Amino acid sequence: MEEPLFTIGASATCNDGECGEVIRVVIDPIVRKLTHLIIEPTHRQGLGRLVPLELVASSNGNVMLRCSLEEFERLDLAEETDFLPGTVGYEGYDPANVMPLPYFALGAGNTSLPVTYDKLPVGEVAVRRDVPVHATDGEIGRVHGVVIDPSDHLVTHVLLQEGHLWGRQEVAIPISAISDFGSEIRLSITKSEVQELPSVDLLGSDD
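The structure assignment produced for this chain is given below.
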């Protein structure tokens, strides 16, 4: 059976029309299982929906969902924005807890700071496009997508996007070589060992 490929940045379509773009994939880092896609409606930044993998009909290329646009809109939001009331200097808030956007509302000498964060199942992490991938001896590229086993949704490979260390091509890193998922992905092997990995025909190449 062909292993599904989830490309971050792929367009997504419901039964009755296009619904947006895959902006992140959600992984349980303990069992290394893909659980959800985060799909953001076109031109509606910050309104990404948390789409269970069970709703995905196909994914190689564009993502096809087993739901209508109306049903998609009823799915849980994957992000939440709070507006923190503050004063000059943001008294009462640690700087590490404040994430200003390019603009914020001003009024009566105070500021209202929008803070956006992911709303994910407990213990799971969202992997974004362009997350750095590090071998034991340095960065080797950035995330382009993931490949899963269709029988159990376990991640089998992480894909490096074009333009990584060895030129403009894609490389599939086996899950056995990944030591940590998070804000960065870390491998248990060196750059030279990545170069020596056997080629894997998972990427839909026309060569």
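Interim note for the steering committee: The chain has two helices and 17 strands. The first strand starts at residue 5 and ends at 7.
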